[in-house]
Design brief:
209 residues; alpha+beta; Jelly Rolls; 4-stranded antiparallel beta sheet; 8 helices
Amino acid sequence: MKRKLFKLNEQMIKIWKECVIDYLTRLYGKPLGDLVTALMTPGALTPRPRSKGYILQEPGALVFEAHYLKTGLAKLYSIDERTGAEKIFYIWEEDSIIVMYKEFRESLPSDDYFIELIEDSELVSITNFCMEGIYEQHTVAHHLTNLILAEKKKRMMAQMNILLTPSKSNRFTLFEEKFPGLKGRLSNDEVCGFIGVSPSTLNNSKNED
């Protein structure tokens, strides 16, 4: 049964927006200055609760939003044409920014990629139209973008380290070491799609632990 989403009141909307500011301030390591005013302007940030399974991005659709993931999980994936299985390229945990950056900045389509919520999630969204004005007026926004992309690259390299491990039977152990925040939160199929193993290999690896 699909969970009914709660409605945000004005106080909750303000708190969710402030969570974005807190995240960016921690990331930057110092006050954000006038960027705070720009982001807190009515219409800039849009808080949204969304249910597990909600599709944030569909293949071929223009990418026009980025999202702060306050709580929940989201995955970037495509569907293998031969097997129908998901090939998971990235998983966002809470307190991070969901964005396909190049496509977002240039309003490009997402090719054959999906972005889907793995859990019921709390999001705060912003459009690329709004961000364009922020980039023009606030240099700090560019620095923050570089930091966000650096964090994403670090996480992608951790996944790549797992995928390049020759012994597939060792990949699940590495997965739990490098991604402790995902432990127990993914289905077996999602774990397989993320670390590139078959269901039988995953089951054997779990039984060995």
